[in-house]
Amino acid sequence: MKSQIKTLHLPTVIQNHSQEMSNKVVAVTGTTSGTGFILAREAAKKGATVILLNRESERSTNALTQLQELVPDGKFDAIACDLQNFESVRQAAQAIRNKYEVLDVLVNNAGVMAFKDIATVDGYDVQMQTNVISHFLLTKELFPLLKKSSQARIVNHTSMARLGSPLNPEYFMKKGGDLGGDGTDEENTSFSGPRWERYHQTKLANCAFTYGLKSKLDQAGITNVIPLLAHPGFALTNLQATTATDGGMEKNSDMMSQAQSAEDGACGIIRAALDPDAKSGNFYGPSGRGWKGFPELLEPEDYIQSDYTVQTNWEECENAVGAFTM
User: Fold this and answer.
1) Would you write out the chain's pLDDT as a tens digit for each of its 326 residues?
2) pTM of the shown model
3) Residue from 276, 280, 274, 26 nearest 149 by CA
4) Which of 5, 102, 203, 265 is most buried by its number of CB atoms within 10 A?
């Protein structure tokens, strides 16, 4: 199916909404496939040193080889980082601090979708820890390097799944495996039920983190670090394939046949990471109903940046991994 979907927007984004990145360092989580892989490839083409943050696996090894083949002159640095393990995240951050004096862009891209109701080694829901809490931890651990950049960016990746019920502190707690179960086949194939509620909570939390960062940075008078938000619309990536394999959705559904390419899905985070005109709090993604299309500058919904949403995410993440000081 992937080969049948034509990429429409990536060339225009690269031509009109990216900048030269020589002497810049860009760290990206989740680069084994999909949006993260494409962003890593394009940032390297622009001259950046790209730090690839993935769990050690055959997939991550193969992805590094592919990137080196696609960008022969590219500068890639693979560092092990398992977002389902806080200690691994801390070790990855320490490895980056040991090797680099400055970090210019951090892209919190990696994510899992509609996984079963299971706990990580740290006791948290696997979706919430992977998608949200570990990215909060990684950002706070790398913040001293970001502050040293002349113009640093922190890019968070949400989705259309941000739309829904309010943020619930329960999903941030050490209750992995006790957050609603796995849902029925009917619920899973219709994108409803407990798996999808847990996923929704993480995608809303990604928004809350962005606007929480903006508020904290504004209060601290820090203007050389800007938080940005993006969403991919509905793109055919390994995220959907993994979810289908796990029983969370139907991989051959009519809806999936309407997806855009992974390259077009990556355009939102590419704009956030590389667009020279990006400003603090900007949100990029397909406009209109948001499922597909050119990555426009979007107006964030009021509730994703409300005091309650922002404060809940910040407090619960700090409860899990410690205070984030500016």
Assistant:
1) 344 789 999 999 999 999 999 999 999 999 999 999 999 999 999 999 999 999 999 999 999 999 999 999 999 999 999 999 999 999 999 999 999 999 999 999 999 999 999 999 999 999 999 999 999 999 999 999 999 999 999 999 999 999 999 999 999 999 999 999 999 999 999 999 999 999 999 999 999 999 999 999 999 999 999 999 999 998 776 654 444 556 555 555 555 556 899 999 999 999 999 999 999 999 999 986 788 999 999 999 999 999 999 999 999 999 999 999 99
2) 0.94
3) 26
4) 265
| Residue with the two structure tokens 């002497």 | 23
What is the Cα–Cα distance from 14 to 43, expressed in whole angstroms? 10
Domain 2-321, CATH among 3.40.50.20, 1.20.120.530, 3.40.50.720, 3.40.47.10: 3.40.50.720
* Rounded Cα gap, residues 307 and 311, in angstroms: 6
Q: How far is CA 163 from CA 48, 167, 231, 279, 301, in A?
A: 34, 11, 12, 23, 9
Task: Give the whole-angstrom CA distance, residue 224 versus residue 221.
Answer: 9
Q: Quick one: three-class SS letters along 53-112?
A: EECCCHHHHHHHHHHHHHCCCCEEEEEECCCCCHHHHHHHHHHHHHHCCCCCEEEECCCC
Residue-range domain boundaries for the chain: 2-321
Backbone torsions φ then ψ of 176, nearest 5 degrees: -55, 130
Query: Is 211 part of the annotated catalytic residue set?
Result: no
